[in-house]
Write a structure and sequence with these properties.
It is a single chain. By secondary structure, this protein is mostly beta strands. The protein is about 10% helix and about 35% strand. The chain is built from three helices and nine strands, in the order E-E-H-E-E-E-H-E-E-H-E-E. The strands form two sheets. It has a five-stranded antiparallel beta sheet with strand order 3-1-2-5-4, with no helix packed on it. It has a four-stranded antiparallel beta sheet with strand order 6-7-9-8, with no helix packed on it. Strand 1 and strand 2 form a beta hairpin. The chain is rod-shaped.
């Protein structure tokens, strides 16, 4: 492979992987005594002969990381991924609410977990609240319309118990 011509001062090479795209950007215009782009490309171009010319295709549009070869900070090796998938609610929720209807159906208890992604109690005991028994969300206020009591389970974890009131 030869050095870039004066007309094409920026060399872009890509390689698409399973869930990312790597793009090498060699800007010959940045060649200087501090950043010897010409020498680096002359000695390393053979590593990239199988790579395709150009920019990363869709869906690889999110720049995840920029790296540089050792000693050549003006050559970029960019890693692109797909735009992030929406994270699970536990990872971003400021508060999580779960509820459970007591045997017999007379009461419904809600538990509020502040910052479930980092809450120590939830990390240690969350497995004790399977969604089959403790679905996400509040008690149905059309049925459980009477406040009974509240409590603190642990730091950042509180509860309220609701009952049925008939007029």
């Amino acid at each position: 492979m030869t050095l870039a011509s004066a007309e094409s001062k920026v060399i872009k090479k890509i390689e698409v992987g399973d869930n990312h795209c790597a793009q090498l950007v060699v800007d010959m215009g940045k060649n200087s005594s501090l950043c010897q782009v010409d020498d680096w490309w002359l000695n390393n171009a053979w590593h990239y002969t199988a790579w395709t010319n150009g920019d990363c295709p869709k869906p690889y549009t999110h720049l995840d990381r920029i790296e540089h070869p050792i000693g050549v900070s003006c050559v970029d090796l960019n890693t692109y991924g797909s735009p992030a998938v929406a994270p699970l609610v536990d990872d971003v929720a400021e508060e999580k609410t779960i509820h459970n209807i007591s045997p017999g159906g007379a009461h419904c208890t809600e538990i509020y977990i502040n910052d479930p992604a980092t809450n120590a109690y939830w990390k240690a005991h969350g497995y004790q609240y399977p969604t089959v028994l403790w679905p996400v969300g509040e008690c149905d206020r059309k049925i459980y319309n009477w406040f009974n009591r509240n409590g603190t389970i642990a730091e950042g974890v509180t509860s309220k118990t609701w009952g049925i009131h008939q007029n």
